[in-house]
Design goal:
Length: 151
């Protein structure tokens, strides 16, 4: 009987050691955990999903404003580039570091003074996708802080 208790205690102890040693991580190191099925979007994904569909701003048709928002390195085609809409040629599509000064966001948010239609033409971009675009524009500025609006 005593031998059985000792064997049971040893087995339980060994299982405890193995389970602790085999632990994949803790909340102290969240980077070790899988993303739980969440897909973290970047700006190129948001633009491709919302603007590059239905022949609007894809790589082949570029139907609207000759603007390809699908092909990788989209920033090379929008940062510091002026809009081409009549009456809006002085507006810059993306001002690196300044989402509030970026015409692309004005179009997405249908702000007063945009030329033509709100984008996307069909449907809307979710608030979380808008935040991805805002963060991307801020990060393009390099400071990670954006430009203060003085207000």
């Amino acid at each position: 009987m005593r031998e059985m208790k000792r064997l049971t205690s040893l087995t339980i102890g060994l299982c405890a050691v193995v389970s602790v040693a085999g632990c994949p991580g803790t909340l102290d190191n969240p980077e070790d955990f899988i993303d739980a099925g969440l897909v973290l979007k970047n700006a190129e994904t948001v633009l491709a999903e919302n603007c590059g569909t239905a022949g609007c701003h894809d790589a082949t048709a570029q139907a609207q404003a000759g603007l390809d928002l699908i092909t990788p390195s989209v920033e090379s085609r929008v940062v510091g580039v002026n809009a081409i809409g009549i009456g809006c040629q002085s507006k810059v599509l993306v001002v690196a570091g300044d989402p509030d000064g970026s015409y692309l966001l004005d179009k997405v948010l249908d702000m007063p003074g945009v030329c033509g239609f709100e984008m996307p033409y069909v449907g809307t971009i979710s608030e979380s996708d808008v935040q991805v675009l805002r963060r991307w524009i801020i990060d393009l500025g390099g400071s990670g802080e954006g430009i203060l609006d003085g207000g």
